[in-house]
What we know:
6-stranded antiparallel sheet, 6 strands, alpha+beta, about 35% helix, about 220 residues
Amino acid sequence: MMQRPFSDLTDRGKAARIRQLALDGLQSEYRVTDPAIRRLSMSSFNSVFRVDHSSQQSVLRVGDACRIHPPGVEDVEAAWLRDLADSGFVVPVNIATTDGASHTVFDHSGVPEPRTCSMFRWVEGVPLTQRLSAESMTAAGVLLAELHEHARSDTLASMATDVRADRVVYFHSENRVLTHESRHGTLLVEAIDRIQRLLDEIWRSPPHQPHLLHG
């Protein structure tokens, strides 16, 4: 029986296909047998699954078909997470494949494009919104400042990447937002220009390479 094209599936159908791709990859690239796998999110750019196996909990991130980051960014991510853990931060440390790689590429007959995937240690916690207060937001701000400062470390400085956070729109060499026709007229263009002037001022004499942290 012929499978329906991936693009014709409902969101639930696409999730089932991605889940099967994840299961196949877990067994072939991580040697994880009989895992219990539960989808955590497909609403963002990536698909994220919790993986329970051998009394352990992990997280598998299945990338989107569209690649927006430069080659090698997963290696930088894994190295920085390891460095953060060594510095005392509680972070989802990268779990290497059986070949020792920080990431791998899965494919599946029911999914037209191969997907770049990474696995991480599970970290217990609750969403920040469940403990929202002035104190928790202040603590989150302090943590973000510490993370940005830590990103100046030798671990990241020694790894050249093409991601420089000195532009408002930087995922493509061409800013396509400028040509986007919107019912808001020139609002987006004016906002980009306003923020770009601010970024230019911030990075006029940078203490380190401009960088952007998220997620």
